[in-house]
Amino acid sequence: MTLEAIRYRTGSLQVLNQLLLPHQTVYDDIRSVQDAFEAIKSMKVRGAPAIAIVGCLSLAVELRAGAGGDDPVTFIRESLCHLTSARPTAVNMGRAARELMEFAENESMEKNSEQLRESVIAWIEDMLERDVNDNKKIGNYGAQHILSGVPRDSVTILTHCNTGSLATAGYGTALGVVRSLHGLGRLKRMYCTETRPYNQGSRLTAYEAVAEGIPATLITDSMAALTMREMDITAVVVGADRVVANGDTANKVGTYQLAIAAKHHGIPFYVAAPSTSCDLSLESGRDIIIEVRPPEELTSINGVSIAAPGIEVWNPAFDVTPHQLITGGIITELGVFLPSELQAALTGRLTAL
Ligand SMILES: CSC[C@@H](O)[C@@H](O)C(=O)COP(=O)(O)O
Question: Which residues are marked as site: Transition state stabilizer (predicted)?
Fold first, then answer.
């Protein structure tokens, strides 16, 4: 059983409100594109694949109710543009918007408004299944690759942020690799970082691990290097919000320092991400726009201040790990690639952004 972050039945959408986890399990209705925009912006729903899926499903809900009238293409275009602006670093929403728009424009040449709505809804509904299938492949490729590099029976993985069922349609990416290792009986333990300032690790990854009986230990971000030295970490596996052509990878802030520490300790560092998180239109990580979040996310927890009032704050949500530090490889649903192999492996398989 994996946790269900997105509940979709034709015409209705609910998301598990991740702001309330782990203490309350509340599903919020998403009745419109604007509801989804707000849920994504406020991080009720988060994680690059989940953002794209919830954004598109909210559009399906509105289309099912007849939104767009005689001109659904304009409605779809404006909605996708709005959704893409909610969080700029993860590429998945932008990619889905581009692909969906292209599909809708093609369909509009031979279908009336009602038929167009139906086919766009079907395209969107298919995203859920595709994401879970891709994640299972990522899990399997990643587990096999990690196991092939070590002579041991069981492995210990360190991960960051939340990349599991809560961040995807199900199964997860980096956490999917952990899940696959666990399923094979080859996971000794997962270490998950707290992931300050938003605590996706302590609130969400820890929640998934406890719910599913995955052996896991929580550490603060500041304990990562020590954990690598003392706890016989086999590999570090993280997710991605955007992997660019040279393999540079934007992911939750703190990923970069994990990669540096892994290199120092000779521990393979992997990025696990579907090809939908890859962006070959950008040459290097310098071109990635990094979202800066409100200071309050750093200075308070659940409304309780934990910082000196008046202090200035810098709160970038993501950092970029240079490709040279991604020593294990980039695990996708198509296989595991070194950063230098990624562009050739994906060319022709991804629509241009
Ligand atoms: C499969 S989720 C991959 C990434 O989106 C994840 O590692 C991450 O950085 C999430 O950040 P968040 O700010 O919680 O959306």
Answer: 161
239 lines ligand 1 (CB under 6 A): yes
Strand order in the sheet with 6-9: 6-9, 12-16, 27-29
CATH class of 6-131: mainly alpha
Question: Using 50, 70 and 90 to split pLDDT, how confident is the model at 63?
Answer: very high
Residue 302 reports pLDDT greater than 90: no
Q: Are 134 and 333 in contact (CB under 8 A)?
A: yes
Residue that is written with structure tokens 């002579």 in the block: 151
Q: Give tens-digit pLDDT for 112-164.
A: 999 999 999 999 999 999 999 999 999 999 999 999 988 889 999 999 999 99
Indicate which residue of 35, 131, 241, 248 is catalytic: 241
Residues 247, 256: Cα–Cα separation, whole Å: 13
pTM for the full predicted model:
0.97
Please give the CATH number for the structural domain made up of 140-346: 3.40.50.10470
pLDDT of residue 353: 77
**Atom of ligand 1 at shortest range from CA of 160:** 7
Task: Give the residue extent of every domain in the chain.
Answer: 6-131, 140-346
Q: Is the CB of residue 48 below 6 angstroms from any atom belonging to ligand 1?
A: yes
Among 6, 17, 46, which is best to mutate for testing ligand 1, by the most ligand atoms less than 8 A from CB?
46
Q: Is 241 a catalytic residue?
A: yes
Predicted ipTM beyond 0.95: yes
Q: Does 49 contact ligand 1 (Cβ within 6 A)? A: yes
User: Helix, strand, or coil here: 225?
Assistant: helix
Residue 87 alpha carbon, nearest atom of ligand 1: 15
Which element (helix H / strand E) includes 117?
helix 113-148
